[in-house]
Specification:
By secondary structure, this protein is mainly β. Helices cover 11% and strands 32% of the residues. It has helices at residues 17-33, 55-62, 69-73, 77-81, 142-145, 326-329, and strands spanning 9-12, 46-48, 91-95, 100-107, 120-122, 138-139, 153-155, 165-169, 181-185, 193-198, 202-204, 211-226, 235-242, 251-254, 273-279, 285-286, 291-294, 307-312, 316-318, 336-338, 342-352, 357-362, 368-369, 373-375.
């Protein structure tokens, strides 16, 4: 499979040279000396940011691994969570002597930023107020993960039991379609827009086989048409959209507010080693830009923007080349040898629960399978 270069999530992220300038040199030097965070030998001298760029793509032009971006820029934890924004028209310069990247904006004529030309380069990071970043460069293409920011949903056993539920349909239809009416019982607490879920299949930890959560299947969205006028009366809802068939017994949860996501792709703060629990959609394998769940979450130190590397366990084989005697091998035959695990891609975590996280599959050279390893970059 071809190795792809992808960008990462529906979010805003950027860089503030002013706050990172003092530590950028040391961070850049550290990144340069780290083989995993090395600059590409064919990295360009500069890149002008254009509309449609993503942070992951820009990073990939300069760095061997895009997740090394915060280290090269000397960003601390707070700056990763609340970065300043990169906008079209700005220029990312590669300072080869210092081993770091700089953000600037050209002023005047054409030339180069290293003094060999006539161009004046103004390195002026402008601190922008949060919420003014509609034109900012996102981490990855927003259309890839937007549908998954509020679904799927991981719940505990029985967690949806007390949620409002569909009790009847128009003309006793088995399944509801767009613009159909649904009759709902339960406390809606003045809510008007709801997502419809069905209690899903259990998610089992590949290591322990224990159930660590239930993935509720997202079915669609409905909107309140008329609230109940008496305690024993049903609310009337109108079906806005349908992703999967919905009907009597399915549960409602309020539509969450649209998240404003500011984060930078980064490795976890501590070593994490998890396993692929499932591939979203009920299939057994995943490829580029598909969603998978892993058995690690908030309690393991993962947060939005965490990047993990994907590995497949190396098999244990019999060493048939060993010419030792029967006395050497013993009664169990020839010695067994564990082959190294194979690193074949990256995972960008974008939604985190206590024990489970969802990630976007990126830069894969093989298919992702349930049971594969997702761990901290080495």
């Amino acid at each position: 499979m071809k190795k792809f270069s992808t960008a990462a999530l529906a979010t805003v992220l950027t860089l503030a040279l002013a706050s990172a300038y003092g530590s950028a040199f040391a961070a850049g030097e550290e990144a340069t000396n780290n083989p995993r965070c090395a600059f590409l030998p064919n990295a360009p001298d500069q890149h002008t940011v254009v509309r449609g760029d993503t942070l992951w793509d820009i990073s990939g032009r300069f760095l061997k691994n895009a997740w090394c971006w915060p280290q090269v820029w000397g960003m601390n934890k707070e700056e990763i969570r609340n970065p300043h924004l990169i906008y079209p028209g700005q220029i990312v310069y590669f300072d080869r002597a210092a081993g770091r990247l700089r953000l600037g904006k050209p002023v005047g004529g054409n030339g180069s930023p290293d003094g060999r030309g006539t161009q004046t380069v103004k390195l002026s990071p402008q601190l922008r107020t949060e919420g003014l970043g509609q034109d900012a460069v996102p981490a990855i293409p927003s259309n890839v993960i937007e549908p998954f920011l509020s679904q799927p949903l991981v719940v505990g056993e029985g967690e949806l039991n007390d949620a409002p539920r569909i009790v009847a349909t128009t003309e006793s239809r088995v399944m509801l379609g767009k613009n159909d009416k649904a009759y709902v019982r339960g406390a809606i607490n003045s809510g008007t827009s709801f997502q419809v879920f069905r209690p899903g299949t259990p998610l089992r930890d590949p290591d322990t086989n224990e159930v660590i959560g239930y993935e509720a299947a997202y079915l669609g969205t409905i909107k309140l048409e008329r609230p109940a006028r008496a305690p024993d009366e049903a609310h009337v809802f109108n079906v806005v959209n349908v992703k999967q068939e919905m009907g009597v017994g399915d549960r409602l949860l309020p539509v969450p507010p649209t998240p404003i996501l500011n984060y930078v792709p980064h490795p976890p703060e501590k070593d994490v080693a998890g396993r692929i629990v499932s591939v979203y959609g009920g299939v057994s394998q995943a490829g580029q830009n598909q969603i998978v769940a892993i058995n690690r979450g908030r309690k393991d130190g993962l947060d939005m923007g965490t990047v993990l590397e994907l590995y497949r366990y190396g098999p244990v084989i019999t060493d048939r080349t060993d010419k030792g005697s029967m006395w050497t091998f013993g009664p169990w035959g020839r010695p067994q040898v564990k082959l190294p695990d194979n690193q074949y891609g990256s995972l960008f975590v974008f939604r985190v629960f206590d024990s489970i996280s969802y990630g976007l599959v990126m830069q894969v050279t093989d298919t992702v399978q349930v049971g594969d390893v997702a761990k901290s970059p080495e």
